[in-house]
Amino acid sequence: MIDLGSNTARCVVFETSLARTVRPVFETKEAPRLGLAPRSDGSLSPPAVARGLAAMRKFSRTLRALGVSRTLGVATSAVRDAPNGSAFVRKVASATGLTLRILSGAEEARYAYLGVAAASELADDLVCDLGGGSLQLMAVREGALAGTISLPLGSLRLSQRFLEHDPPKRRERERLEDHVRTTLTSAVEALGGPADRLFGVGGTVRALARASIELRGYPARRVHGYRLYAHDLAALDELLGPMPASKRRSIPGIGGDRADVVLAGIVVLEQLMRAAGVDHTVVSGGGIREGIALEAIGASLPAPAEELVDRSVSAAAEALSFERTHGAEVTGAALALFELLGRGRSWGRSERLALRAAGGMHDAGIAIDLWNHAQHSAYLLQNYPVGGLDPREVALASMAAYLHEGGAPPSEWKKRYLPILAPSDLELAVQLGAILEVAELVAAARPRFRLSRGGRALAVGFSSGAGSALPSRWLEKVRKPMERVFELEVRARDR
Length: 495
Known about the structure:
Layout: E1 2-4, E2 9-16, E3 22-30, H1 46-66, E4 73-75, H2 77-81, H3 85-96, E5 101-102, H4 105-117, E6 125-130, E7 135-141, E8 144-151, H5 155-162, H6 170-190, E9 197-201, H7 203-216, E10 227-229, H8 230-240, H9 245-248, H10 262-276, E11 280-283, H11 288-296, H12 305-320, H13 324-341, H14 349-361, H15 373-383, H16 391-403, H17 413-417, H18 423-442, E12 447-452, E13 457-462, H19 474-486, E14 489-492
Parallel strand pairs: 1-4, 4-5, 6-9, 9-11, 13-14
Antiparallel strand pairs: 1-2, 2-3, 6-7, 7-8, 10-11, 12-13
């Protein structure tokens, strides 16, 4: 998959699964900056064309070396807007054999929406894809794409037009802010006004998220699901604004290819949040490239979070060769016990999703090491892309998987996860781990749970004859976590 944008170009190889998911397994990028210094009529300049061809030649050689059987290629704003864009695409085909499809603004927006929808359940939201040449806005209603607008508000385009000095003068910044504010206010209104949430896609958004993660000392290293707040942008603006680009490039997360355009990106995101009526942007790891790949393999989107979790678990089982059937049995038993024990507790769908993911992948770590598989499962849950979960749910799922074989949580968890979890979530993670521990012990016997003695005892029954599949002393093993965590007596009951 090749994505040739106005600022950067990326070449990504995706691994596909029978569950209709995609996962990047190789990525390289170049910064040909096709949109830099166009000619007076808007055409791509000869230096830009030369840089673009050089990048495509590198990608072509890389794909041949990797033995990739099918390549999809797209070009976006810079090529789309240039009078000589089609001629450039023909030159690429002649020089490299690569076919690039020039996407319209609406197509670019739809693919970005699909990429976000594959990773997060959408409702009544706004999705933005901030590129070098353009900004795509997508209105989502009840999860479906309801409208799109493509605006010439890309970071590179705005930087060239408004920010003449390095660092920018105050008057330049004010002119940029006025222009972006006016444009976005009318655009958001045209799409239906303020949204419940704003999702952000694109290299500049991810770069700002990585820089914010470094500044905040945030424990999760993946940018997907990260909440980039208005005060985070203000802090980055205060830090980066007075710096020349040569110093900005040394800030972790920014890098050399965005150092001179990141300030314009901050302005766009700040003004978009104000126009959308939200105080943060949810950063998405999936975007246009994932959307194109998912369409190519026939993925069904949008989908509820539960289905996104299940697809991801199935894809992980396929990639890592762990037992999916056992995981499904354990998940079923765990969710049944969760529903029973959750009565009177403030558990809801979010906690249920975390347990669903933990149940499906609690044995994933066996792919690394049988004897310490719980710890490895916890690591995989934090680092394998599981769709449908936010960072809190990922942390809870990881902790539950870690605890599913018993034992106490590590003392460093409280400090490590504090920016993601509330203090009460540590107790919740222990409870989910205990539920998962019991579910694994009894899942094969198709258990049925019931509270008895006024809610002080857990009665466990089994389908006819299924109890014989349980190991000896199972009752004692089940009793320990239920007594320790929930103060419940455990009783076996006959059918």
